[in-house]
Amino acid sequence: MAEIATTAALPAVVLVHGGFVDGSGWEDTYKILKKDGYNVSIVQNPTTSLADDVVATKRVLAAQNGPVVLVGHSYGGVVVTEAGNDPSVAALVYVAAFAPDKGESVAALIKDPPPGAPVPPILPPQDGFLFLDRTKFAAAFAADVEKEKAEFMANSQVPWGVEALTGTISQPAWKTKPSWYLIATEDKMIPPPAQHFMSKRAGSTVVEVKGSHAVYVSKPEAVAALIEKAAKGVRDLVAS
């Protein structure tokens, strides 16, 4: 079967960032997808609360035409797990992301780390928001990102609201929508065994990439390739 090459035949792609960062980290992934003919939108979550971030995501979803591949990195995985119940969403992609079940939150998923797992250098809350220790940001979050860019990410952190960490899922979209999951094997923020557990539980199609938590910045080609696999899955489903 010939590949469908027209832009109209391709599902839209919506990218959702996680905590401590904004949507600009998706730039290289965005460029690859755009070059390949996809309509791509990037959500700028306030990361103040899960409810606020779901609203921000649904606002972008409402502007799309046709089916959507909804992609989340890190905490963005929680957002897409909830917002993905929107009828426009045909598939989910998790990139080194949390994929919580009903009633779960980031706080619940990280409260009992396995022995020996790296401890993210999260500083005590300030006015209800969290930051990573700037001096440890690169090693923990972006170890394979070019040094100057990692420093910029550390120094341009977006405050991550404690309410975002405690927001719970009402109904996980992965129970009714197909999902794909990219496991970052060198992740120091979400341990790879946790990523394996969540992706298996969600029934996701899994790929493993040697990369840090910021794999969406350091390995955009691999991330875009998985998103395009999900998009092909959507097109095949529509065509069948």
Q: Explain this structure to me?
A:
The chain has 240 residues and is α/β, with parallel strands linked by helices. The protein has a single domain, classed as Rossmann fold (3-Layer(aba) Sandwich). The chain is built from 10 helices and 8 strands. The chain has helices spanning 27-35, 50-61, 76-83, 106-110, 134-141, 147-155, 162-166, 192-202, 215-218, 220-239; strands at residues 12-16, 40-43, 68-73, 89-95, 129-130, 160-161, 179-184, 205-209. The chain has a 6-stranded parallel sheet, with helices on both faces. Strand 3, helix 3 and strand 4 (89-95) form a beta-alpha-beta unit. Helix 2 packs across helix 3 (76-83) and helix 5 (134-141) packs across helix 6. The longest helix has 20 residues, at 220-239. Mean pLDDT is 94; it is low at 1-8.
- The geometry reads as globular
Mind telling me the C-alpha Rg?
Answer: 17 Å
Strand pairing plus helix content: what structural class? alpha/beta
Q: List the strand order in the largest sheet.
A: 2-1-3-4-7-8
- CATH class equals Alpha Beta
Known CATH architecture: 3-Layer(aba) Sandwich
What is the mean pLDDT? 94
Tell me about the biggest sheet?
A: 6 strands, parallel
Element-by-element helix/strand order: EHEHEHEHEHHEHEHEHH
Percent strand: 15-25%
Which stretches are low in confidence, meaning pLDDT under 50 for 5 or more residues running?
A: 1-8
What's the number of extended β-strand segments? 8
Tally of structural domains:
1
Question: How many helices?
Answer: 10
Measured between the Cα atoms of the first and last residue, the distance is 12 Å
Classified in CATH, the superfamily is Alpha/Beta hydrolase fold, catalytic domain
The residue fraction in helices comes out at 25-40%
